[in-house]
């Protein structure tokens, strides 16, 4: 196998920056790709080379297999790292890379295909002895069969798209009378999202937590797990806070879930980094949901508690190296929490909030890591996921990690667009978060129905605005006096006004 | 400077005074606080209330300011309050509606002959990127409109006359 000296990162935003950093630290040459909306984005500036893919929309740039492979060939890259999203779980892309003689940093295309199709992944799990959520193994066309299966597993049930994930095509059905219309809607949603209208059925577990296991496998048959990540803090089927370890996972459950995950990864011949997602019900029983055949957004929490660099390990595995440690040599130490910083407005139903970042002050200090993809002055385009950064905090225990996270969120300052920073801080300060008493329905259920417990100091807020208005007027009346520069000009007021043009 | 602030759906009168380069006296409703304020970094403001320190950033919005404080973000709507003295002058005087400050006429809401009630909006003036609706202080019929939309006006300029 030829050595990897130059890596093309087929992604953008924070994950592209994250991968570029690992490459830089390993002494590898780096190639970025970009759309017209990202010409000056941080990943472009941070790479040794940058190649244009096409216009802003992802379908015309980051999702273009031919364009990415051509850029890799043109730049002489030895390997492609897909990040997550875009082409990361696209078997055709992995095949196209291989056909062009470029190493795809990830599993084999057949594995991507097997685990990407939800019902075949469930079948593989069952064969490996991994419990799955009660439901159907195959997609079901016949309505009478669906109705019978729903009765068998018991309502409420979830209808899911066989062809994909990401929360699309999922319908919760509470009773038999709603089944027919829900099936119709799930089928049409799945058809338009994945071009595959087949659906299958699962029992809807109530009070469950979303807990996942990170695995690493080399090309020499060695498979290890890197413990769990707790990902139950979600909104709209998307995680916003993750942590490791989970308060809901006992040492015995950890060992069991780790062993099940390694067994399944082995069974499907898995190579590279992957994640097995489970639901753990109120009694502590784990049920396999699906496998993500790529690097996960929330991988930094695992890096904190294991002391490993997952991206570097991915590259080394792709280069044919053996894992440099055994299961017995991996330890979970301390506690790490991640908050996803999104450009979105929690007051407007978490609607994305694109725009230009005028001021950006990221937190730092003990136990804090900010994996950001943006700088002050950057435009957050409308075309892509509005994740700005992943803020992770590490502590000797959960309380210290949470205290550090709260401290860091209070330091985080983003001006120019709306973010979810205050919303995340509210969750961190909540007694239910502190005690660990939450499940996947907590954010959109109990938390959404509550009034915020903390109130900003209104008088200081109003006084600050009033002083700003006062100074703005004073500055306006003084602009003709050249020798006297108003304090507000020095404070960067002009910069902000420029940003608004 | 007298203002009306709107925060979280509540309205409150605010007055800012500053002598020279000294501290600011800010009256919010019937509460008065003294703050020392210094610009600190881009759009940053370091406030000291006594010795209590607040690290704030303020961002202009079309209707006021967005205030960032310890991870919280609060929208504050501000409008220049027509002072009680000015309001009284309008009521007693020859029914002349003048511009309280330099600005641009955004909308003229009346024409000659329009009957207005006390409190009806007459002209909308934009100043400091804030739109202020100037209201008739008493009822009457519009005799003349001296401005048109888009026109820049000086402070004190005659805008509308009532009969």
Give a structural overview.
- The complex is a heterodimer of chains A (501) and B (163).
- Chain A has 501 residues and is an alpha+beta fold.
- Chain A has five domains: 6-105, Rossmann fold, CATH 3.40.50; 107-131 and 206-333, D-amino Acid Aminotransferase, Chain A, domain 1, CATH 3.30.470; 134-203, Dna Ligase, domain 1, CATH 3.30.1490.20; 334-454, ATP-grasp fold, B domain (D-amino Acid Aminotransferase, Chain A, domain 1); 458-498.
- Chain A contains 18 helices and 22 strands.
- In chain A, a hairpin with a 2-residue loop joins strand 10 (223-235) and strand 11.
- In chain A, helix 4 packs antiparallel against helix 5 (109-116) and helix 12 (398-411) runs antiparallel to helix 13 (421-428).
- Chain B has 163 residues and is mainly beta.
- Chain B has one domain (2-162): OB fold (Dihydrolipoamide Acetyltransferase, E2P) (Beta Barrel).
- In chain B, the strands form three sheets. In chain B, strands 1-2-3-4-5-6-7-8 form an eight-stranded antiparallel β-barrel. A four-stranded antiparallel beta sheet of chain B has the order 9-16-14-11, with no helix packed on it.
- The model of chain B is unreliable at 83-94 (pLDDT under 50).
- The interface between A and B is large, with 44 and 46 residues.
Kindly summarize this structure in a few lines.
Chain A contains 18 helices and 22 strands.
pLDDT averaged residue by residue of chain A:
92
- Annotated CATH architecture of the largest domain in chain A: 2-Layer Sandwich
What order do the strands of the largest sheet of chain A run in, or round the barrel if closed? 13-12-9-10-11-14-21-19
- Into how many domains do the coordinates of chain A divide? 5
CATH class of chain B: Mainly Beta
- Strand composition percent of chain A: 15-25%
Low-pLDDT stretches of chain A: 480-501
Determine Rg of chain A (CA atoms, Å): 24 Å
CATH fold category name of chain B? OB fold (Dihydrolipoamide Acetyltransferase, E2P)
- The CATH superfamily of the largest domain in chain A bears the name ATP-grasp fold, B domain
Kindly give the count of domains of chain B: 1
- Counting helices, strands and paired strands, the structural category of chain B is mainly beta
CATH class of the largest domain in chain A: Alpha Beta
Shape of chain B: elongated
> How many strands appear in the DSSP assignment of chain A?
22
């Amino acid at each position: 196998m030829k050595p990897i000296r130059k890596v093309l990162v087929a992604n953008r935003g924070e994950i592209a920056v994250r991968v570029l950093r690992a490459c830089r630290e390993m002494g590898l040459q780096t190639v970025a790709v970009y759309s017209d909306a990202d010409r000056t984005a941080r990943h472009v500036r941070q790479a040794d080379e940058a190649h244009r893919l096409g216009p802003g929309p992802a379908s015309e740039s980051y999702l273009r297999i031919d364009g990415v492979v051509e850029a890799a060939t043109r730049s002489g890259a030895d390997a492609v790292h897909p990040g997550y999203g875009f082409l990361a779980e696209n078997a055709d892309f992995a095949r196209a890379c291989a056909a062009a003689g470029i190493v795809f940093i990830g599993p084999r295309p057949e594995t991507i295909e097997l685990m990407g199709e939800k019902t075949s992944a469930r079948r593989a799990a069952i064969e490996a002895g991994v419990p799955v959520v009660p439901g159907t193994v195959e997609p079901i066309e016949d309505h009478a069969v669906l109705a019978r299966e729903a009765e068998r597993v018991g309502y409420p049930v979830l209808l899911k798209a066989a062809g994909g994930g990401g929360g699309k095509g999922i319908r919760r059905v509470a009773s038999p009378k709603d089944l027919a219309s829900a099936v119709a809607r799930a089928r049409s949603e799945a058809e338009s999202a994945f071009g595959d209208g087949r659906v299958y059925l699962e029992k809807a577990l109530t009070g469950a937590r979303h807990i996942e296991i990170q695995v690493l496998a080399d090309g020499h048959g060695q498979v290890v797990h890197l413990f769990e990540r707790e990902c139950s803090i979600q909104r709209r089927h998307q995680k916003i806070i993750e942590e490791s370890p989970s308060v809901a996972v006992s040492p015995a459950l950890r060992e069991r879930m780790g062993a099940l995950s390694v067994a399944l990864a082995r069974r499907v011949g898995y190579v590279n980094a992957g994640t097995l997602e489970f639901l753990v019900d109120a009694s502590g029983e784990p049920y396999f949901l699906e496998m993500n055949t790529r690097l996960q957004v929330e991988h930094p929490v695992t890096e904190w508690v294991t002391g490993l660099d997952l991206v570097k390990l991915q590259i080394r595995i792709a280069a044919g190296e053996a894992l440099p440690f055994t299961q017995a040599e991996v330890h979970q130490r301390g506690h790490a929490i991640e908050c996803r910083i999104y450009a979105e407005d929690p007051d407007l139903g978490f609607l994305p909030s694109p725009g230009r970042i005028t001021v950006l002050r990221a937190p730092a200090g003990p136990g804090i890591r900010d994996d950001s993809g943006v700088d002050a002055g950057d435009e957050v385009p409308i075309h892509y996921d509005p994740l700005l950064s992943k803020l992770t905090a590490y502590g000797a225990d959960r309380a210290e990690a949470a205290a550090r996270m709260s401290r860091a969120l209070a330091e985080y300052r983003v001006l120019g667009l709306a973010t979810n920073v205050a919303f995340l801080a509210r969750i961190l300060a909540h007694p239910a978060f502190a005690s660990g008493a939450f499940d996947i329905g907590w954010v959109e259920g109990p938390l959404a129905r509550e009034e915020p417990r903390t109130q900003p100091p209104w008088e200081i807020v109003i006084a600050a605005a009033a002083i700003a208005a006062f100074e703005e007027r004073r500055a306006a009346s003084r602009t003709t006096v050249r020798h006297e520069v108003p304090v507000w000009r020095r404070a960067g007021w002009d910069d902000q006004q420029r940003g608004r043009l | 400077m007298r203002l009306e602030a709107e925060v979280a759906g509540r309205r409150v009168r605010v007055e800012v005074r500053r002598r020279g380069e000294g501290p600011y006296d800010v009256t919010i409703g019937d509460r008065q606080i003294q703050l020392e304020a210094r610009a600190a970094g881009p759009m940053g403001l370091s406030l000291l209330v006594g010795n209590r320190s607040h690290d704030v950033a303020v961002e202009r919005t079309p209707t006021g300011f967005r205030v960032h404080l310890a991870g919280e973000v609060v929208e504050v709507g501000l409008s220049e309050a027509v002072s009680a003295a000015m309001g009284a002058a309008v009521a007693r005087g020859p029914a002349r509606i003048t511009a309280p400050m330099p600005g641009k006429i955004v909308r003229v809401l009346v024409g000659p002959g329009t009957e207005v009630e006390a409190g009806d909006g007459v002209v909308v003036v934009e100043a400091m990127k804030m739109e202020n609706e100037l209201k008739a202080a008493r009822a009457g019929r519009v005799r003349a409109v001296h401005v048109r939309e888009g026109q820049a006006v000086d402070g004190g300029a005659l805008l509308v006359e009532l009969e």
